[in-house]
Amino acid sequence: MNYKRLLVSLFVAGASLTHSLANAYTELQPPHDYDSVAKELTEMLEAVHYNKPTIDDRISASAFDLYLDSLDPIKSFFLQSDIDTLSKHRLELDDALRNGDTQIAYDIYNLYIHRVEDRLNKLLKVLPDMVDNFDYTKKESLNVDFDNVQWSKTSEELDEYWRKRIKNRALTLKLNNTSEDEIASVIEKRYRNQLKRIEQSEPVDVFQTFANSITAALDPHTTYFAPRASETFNINMSLSLEGIGAVLQYDDDYTKVVRLIPGGPAEKQNELAPNDRILAVGQDGKAMVDVVGMRLDDVVDMIRGERGTKVYLEIQPAKGDGQTTKTINITREKVKLEDQAAAKKIINVERGGQTYKVGVVELPTFYSDFAAIQAGDKNYKSSTRDTKKIIEELRQEDVIAIVLDLRNNGGGSLQEANSLAGLFIPHGPTVQIKDTSGRVTVMGDRDPSVTYSGPLGVLVNRMSASASEIVAAALQDYGRALILGGKTFGKGTVQVLQEMDKGQLKVTQAKFYRVSGESTQHKGVHPDVEFPSLLDEKSVGESALENPLPWDKIHETRYPIYWKMGDYLPVLKPRHEQRMKEEPNFVAMVDQINDVREQTSSFKSISLNEEERLTRRKEGQEKTIARENTRRKALGLEPITSEDEIESTEDDPYAKEAAEVMLDFIAANQLKSKQ
């Protein structure tokens, strides 16, 4: 995951080279007790980071851009003239960190805050009249292609950019049934809250943002956590956080959902999804609070709360039209180990008048109950022990094949991943780990016993990461399993937490390699048989992050190959593709995928014309209803007339198709054996 913006990035962050501006904001100065932390950070990065980097002008230039991006991500406060003035510091950030003199970062920060104050104070004076006079019949649009938005050259140009942004927000509120009398006050409250948060900025916030512009230039997983952020990070890693069970990040002014914790409240409820944006947060009996532009750790604090209580979220769904929002509520709970434990189900597949059973082992994470182990509990839970027990139960139920379901499994214990792979192979290597010195360590299964030697599939998707990729890659290289689904995340790096004088450094120190010698980094694991997916590789995965470490290759290890899976693919793929054309759930899904991709590719600007927006919304609703009714007709279900009637189904077409592919494999293998 991109922890760079997970707990660190700030919106209300900017600084000052001009000390004569008359504003309420008190300029921040570097805390002298962090001078040594800056030096310590430089030394540590150069000594222990995997790439053994030199923090030099090249790093400084990249960090300069990242620092400005973390402060003003959608170019809404600085002018091009500001950037031109600040650019003289482009090659000085490395020296600032190394010398423990971070005044430059604070100067930039303070200038930015002054720009924020000036802009928002000016805006608040005219906002009510501006909103009252918006003409929603006018043909105009707002550029939302933020990667290609340029800095405004004049104040008038920036005024116009802001006018369109506010008009877009006002129109969105209007179309989502906010009273016209309330629209201006809702928007006004957002910016007053933003100004209030400026007053709450602390010097350590600036240091953390600056430090992480340096670490982000190295790779997306190396992160400095100041004491407060460090505490929040540790809470999340221990899963003791009582909340909704979602990993969040700051992204271009918004709080965005990165992934859902398996077994958590949000995942169970199935209304929140990766890439959804959170616009407002509310508590029982209290008004919703707009969180656009709010510090991420403050948003996290608002979502966190006592178990059993509800939190209300106004979200902009990633799968929507980019303009419609909805409000959901989630009951906070603590994510429990048993909610993440391995589980099983059996899928019945009809072939030739007979019913065949395929067992599915669902594994949300690689876990081990360390507390129970330390207490001497012989019945402690672990992913390997639980999976082994489930496999033995499935064998008793006469399954003809097994599918290991690693979808949305973001990783966990490396030792557990290693031992779990060993359930399906005799002793042998499973993963290679290369450290900062170039030394390669081989981890493997030392137990010659095999729990299951029959036909095996591994089901993965774009959210299968780290330890999941190690297991999938090992079983693929051994020819021990068919890999089914989507390309995996591509996180093939190892991070270690290093304590610092103040805070912690999570630093990349090693890379994973398959037994074949290929890295899982960046490229991930490619499935043998690919299933359609709504997860967009361009926005989700290691390759979507900034400055990921590259893919590379080392020497392979010695390992046997049990099945040459490539020999079966000419038979398996055509049969799979034919079912994709016939199976109603996948037909509907492929249509939705194509629709989302078409919208994404063309979504460079958003109309500020009410009629056009309503037309687009209506067309989207009609498409969704038509798609659902086509699916329902094929399944013999009654048609619907509105989107509200669409209900989530417990049917899992992916697991069903995985079972179908496994039967094709068994049939092809039997035919091959007779030849």
UniProtKB/TrEMBL annotation:
Residues 1-24 form the signal peptide. Belongs to the peptidase S41A family. Keywords: Hydrolase, Protease, Serine protease, Signal. GO terms for cellular component: outer membrane-bounded periplasmic space. The keyword Translocase does not apply. GO terms for molecular function: endopeptidase activity; serine-type peptidase activity. This is Carboxyl-terminal processing protease. GO terms for biological process: proteolysis; signal transduction. Pfam families: DUF3340, PDZ, Peptidase_S41, TSP_NTD. SUPFAM superfamilies: ClpP/crotonase, PDZ domain-like. Residues 234-304 form the PDZ domain. It comes from Marinomonas balearica. InterPro entries: ClpP/crotonase-like_dom_sf (IPR029045), PDZ (IPR001478), PDZ_sf (IPR036034), Peptidase_S41A (IPR004447), Tail-specific_protease (IPR005151), Tail_Prtase_C (IPR020992), TSP_N (IPR040573).
